Amino acid sequence: GDLASIVMKAMAPERSRRYATAQDLAEDLRRFLAHEPVAARPPTALYQLRLFARRHRAVVFGVAATVLALVGGLVLYAMEARRASDAAREATVAASTASAVSEFLVRMLSKVDPNRRSDTVDLRALVDGAAAEIGELFADKPLEQAAVRNEVGTIYYSLGRLSDAEREYRIARDLRAEHLGREHSDTLDATNNLGQAILRKDRLDEALALLREAYEGRMRLLGERHPKTLASTNNLAMALEASGDLVAAEALLRRVVDGGRGPTSPPPESTLIAAGNLANLLQRDGRHDEALA
């Protein structure tokens, strides 16, 4: 996603791939907050898919989906508000949480000297300092705090700081479960994110339980073909493969791949990712001809 791309560009080992100045970094984050194309975005869809399938696989897709959910949630909540009276509250909460995230990121960036070179900015220290302020800034706003912690968790995840990501995701999940319920879409988002972080830490049993909870909850709430459900299907399949249950993992991936095939329209991104993951699984299982089909 755009936020992960910005973080990884800022931390790129090659100087030529980093932002030239801290001002360039701040400008790209401003474009992200304004929902404009960012300079850090990988140049082609093929390149992005290769990164997903070969390096980060479905885990990063879950992170990207989580970030995009904040933006898409505003539109979804607005549509629901026209259908039911209680959706008005959902729209208000979505707007408030999205605003809180934007203001928090701006506050964090305001501490960067725009005249400094980007490679002299200690991004990890910057995020740590901002994260330490979350509890105080949003002490009486639990849903806004949850949204901000979810995004900080995503930044930590992109930096490879999995224990910090787990902490922020877990707090976000607990806050949302308390104030929205365990079956709410936002709570399931945090559950999915937490499961991915724990999977990266090789705690398979705990990760499987969380990813299965997110998958089953999204199936009930959103339906099988919703993008978030498809992301959860991919994520659960990856956890099952990691645990050695290749049969169950293959069944889930084939469900995504087969369901995304259409006579004319191109397959959605989730289908392409599942196809790549399925090919990797078949290769691992020694079924090379099937993997190439």
Description:
- It is a single chain.
- The protein has 293 residues and is an all-alpha fold.
- It has helices spanning 2-10, 22-33, 45-81, 87-109, 123-132, 134-137, 142-158, 162-180, 185-200, 204-222, 227-242, 246-259, 269-284, 288-292.
- Helix 1 packs antiparallel against helix 2, helix 3 (45-81) packs across helix 13 (269-284) and helix 11 packs parallel to helix 13.
- It is globular, with a radius of gyration of 19 Å.
Structural class: mainly alpha
How many β-strand runs? 0
> Helix segment count?
14
Helicity range of the residues? over 70%
Mean pLDDT: 79
**Uncertain stretches:** 44-60
Main sheet specs = none
What is the molecular shape? globular
Based on CA atoms alone, the radius of gyration comes out at: 19 Å
| N-C termini distance | 29 Å
Order of helices and strands: HHHHHHHHHHHHHH
Fraction in beta strands: under 5%
